[in-house]
């Protein structure tokens, strides 16, 4: 195991984050580096200097950016399209697969809320059913595959599954689930919202559809995400907005031009990948994982709680059980996070799973162990 003392020096100066705040929730909205902000600002200034010239140049610039992002994922660029976020990617996938009346869309209880809502919408439209498989937090891969496989069958329209669960920071065994679905020819839609930057070649497990956000760990401007589509589905996969590229035979170009849209974030996104390369991100990711292991233990000890035994946690995300004061409603959770922000000058997020409430910790190159020690010192004062 990498020792926490081996961690590389944090680089907060590469971001414009408020130094008076503990930023411990990179996993929700990310943080855009200074260099990328400068590129983004330059692109927007160029747009406003001559909008006609800008929009004439957009198609070529989008192609160049898209190819860089596809290369980063190590995926076939012919099957890689840009979308605003992973929720949009899942929605496009559900709009593509055939959903017969009486069929079942299978999810797990780890699914992101907006993804579940999308499944429910398509189920209503097609007189289908949403089936939620309960997967315990501490499940190993064999248990995950066994539980989900038991819900699959000839009436399953699609399996929609997290690659890294937002609620639990748990990594799912996607390749094995793809193999299980292949027995019934069931399309697999992977919500890989957190996967870019945390998993190498995250779209390489053979799913029919994979989607992931670049604004999280790769630190690209928000509104930048990718949709990877297997070859058999490319001809019928359409963007959610009907625009001038409707009849383009190529999947990526069909998604590129969505009318009068702000394309600057997509074009600026590769600059953040270059920032990560300069930071030797893969090495830092391993070291940050060790930092978070220690940080989670320190916070759990301060709260008198525990760190759940997630078999395969995401590299730079950890859960700490929170002895939540009162009824853990969404409104109470939002109020608690606001108190932490205002009184402790710290930004955190809470997640709920079954009847348990957790602080979901994140780390990026601007974080150090001292950040989590500070939270451990301050958080007990709120109880």
Structure, briefly:
The protein is an alpha/beta fold. Helices cover 40% and strands 14% of the residues.
How would you sum up this structure, described in words?
By secondary structure, the protein is of the alpha/beta class. The chain folds into two domains: 4-31 and 280-382, Aspartate Aminotransferase, domain 1 (Alpha-Beta Complex), CATH 3.90.1150.10; 37-275, Aspartate Aminotransferase, domain 2 (3-Layer(aba) Sandwich), CATH 3.40.640. The chain has twelve helices and twelve strands. The chain has helices at residues 26-29, 34-49, 51-73, 86-96, 113-125, 141-149, 174-182, 251-256, 264-278, 281-303, 330-344, 369-378; strands spanning 22-23, 80-83, 104-108, 129-133, 156-162, 188-191, 209-213, 225-229, 317-321, 346-347, 350-353, 356-362. It has a seven-stranded mixed beta sheet with strand order 2-8-7-6-5-3-4, with helices on both faces. Strands 9-12-11 form a three-stranded antiparallel beta sheet. Strands 1-10 form a two-stranded parallel ribbon. Helix 3 (51-73) crosses helix 9. The chain is globular. The two termini are 34 Å apart. Mean pLDDT is 95; it is low at 1-7. It comes from Kribbella voronezhensis. This is Isopenicillin-N epimerase.
């Amino acid at each position: 195991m990498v020792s926490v003392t081996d961690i590389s020096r944090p680089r907060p100066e590469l971001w414009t984050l408020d130094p008076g705040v503990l930023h411990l929730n990179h996993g929700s909205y990310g943080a855009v580096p200074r260099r990328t902000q400068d590129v983004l600002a330059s692109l927007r200034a160029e747009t406003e200097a001559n909008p006609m010239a800008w929009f004439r140049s957009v198609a070529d610039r989008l192609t160049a950016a898209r190819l860089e992002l596809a290369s980063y994922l190590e995926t076939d660029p012919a099957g890689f399209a840009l979308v605003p976020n992973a929720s949009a990617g899942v929605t496009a996938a559900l709009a593509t697969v055939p959903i017969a009346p009486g069929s079942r869309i299978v999810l797990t209880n780890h699914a992101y809320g907006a993804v579940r809502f999308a499944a429910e919408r398509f189920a209503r439209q097609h007189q289908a059913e949403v089936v939620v498989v309960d997967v315990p937090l501490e499940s190993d891969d064999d248990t995950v595959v066994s539980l989900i496989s038991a819900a699959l069958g000839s009436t399953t329209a699609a399996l929609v599954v997290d690659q890294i669960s937002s609620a639990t920071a748990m990594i799912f065994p996607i390749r094995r689930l793809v193999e299980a679905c292949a027995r019934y020819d069931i399309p697999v839609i992977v919500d890989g919202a957190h996967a870019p930057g945390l998993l190498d070649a995250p779209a390489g497990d053979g799913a029919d559809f994979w989607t992931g956000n670049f604004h999280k760990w790769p630190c690209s401007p928000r509104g930048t995400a990718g949709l990877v589509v297997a070859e058999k589905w490319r001809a019928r996969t359409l963007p959610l907005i009907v625009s001038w590229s409707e009849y383009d035979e190529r999947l990526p170009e069909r998604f590129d031009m969505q009318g009068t849209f702000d394309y600057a974030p997509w074009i600026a996104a590769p600059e953040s990948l270059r920032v990560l390369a300069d930071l030797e991100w893969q090495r830092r990711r391993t070291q940050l994982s060790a930092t978070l292991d220690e940080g989670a233990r320190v916070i759990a000890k301060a709260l008198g709680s525990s760190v759940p035994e997630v078999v395969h946690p995401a590299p730079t995300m950890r859960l700490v059980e929170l002895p939540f004061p009162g009824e853990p409603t969404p409104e109470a959770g939002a109020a608690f996070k606001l108190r932490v922000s205002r009184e402790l000058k710290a930004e955190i997020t809470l997640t709920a799973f079954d009847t348990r409430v957790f602080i979901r910790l994140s780390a990026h190159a601007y974080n150090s162990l001292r950040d989590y020690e500070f939270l451990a010192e301050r958080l007990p004062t709120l109880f």
